[in-house]
Design a protein that fits this description.
The chain contains four helices and two strands; from the N terminus they run ααββαα. Strand 1 and strand 2 form a beta hairpin. The chain folds into two domains: 48 residues; 43 residues, H-NS DNA Binding Protein (Irregular). Helices cover 52% and strands 3% of the residues. By secondary structure, it is mostly helical. It has a two-stranded antiparallel ribbon with strand order 1-2.
């Protein structure tokens, strides 16, 4: 660094001003390139960071998540209860059925197993 200061110190004022202008031009062009890259990455970076940069709207945290279906229609067609009502459901309701007729009960396919509990009781009794 001492060598550079000696070199700069030996330069004339006109040469130093010219060098300063060249450095300013190089820095501003590099800053422009960086700004373009940030603009391109802006929406992606804002979504990752949760900031309001980009188009100014926040994205819903639930958007794109899968939800268990709540309603089952003819032919096994399902609907989770989100968004617009499916045509098959709207037609059925218009035909006189109720929305509750298509509800999927949560415990319909699950049956509790008592074998594991009784097995544990037996093991405890043997001790």
């Amino acid at each position: 660094m001492a060598k550079r200061t000696k070199t700069l110190a030996s330069m004339s004022i006109e040469t130093l001003i010219k060098l300063r202008d060249e450095i300013g031009t190089a820095l501003s062009s590099r800053a422009g390139e960086m700004q373009q890259q940030l603009t391109r990455l802006g929406r992606w970076g804002a979504a990752k960071a949760g900031a309001g940069v980009g188009d100014g709207r926040r994205r819903s945290t639930l958007k794109g998540r899968k939800v268990a279906p709540k309603y089952r229609g003819p032919g096994g067609v399902t609907w989770a209860g989100r968004g617009a009502r499916p045509r098959w459901l709207a037609a059925a309701i218009k035909g006189g059925k109720k929305l509750e007729d298509f509800l999927i009960t949560k415990g319909a396919g699950k049956q509790g197993s008592k074998a594991g509990k009784t097995g544990r009781r037996r093991r405890k009794a043997k001790r």
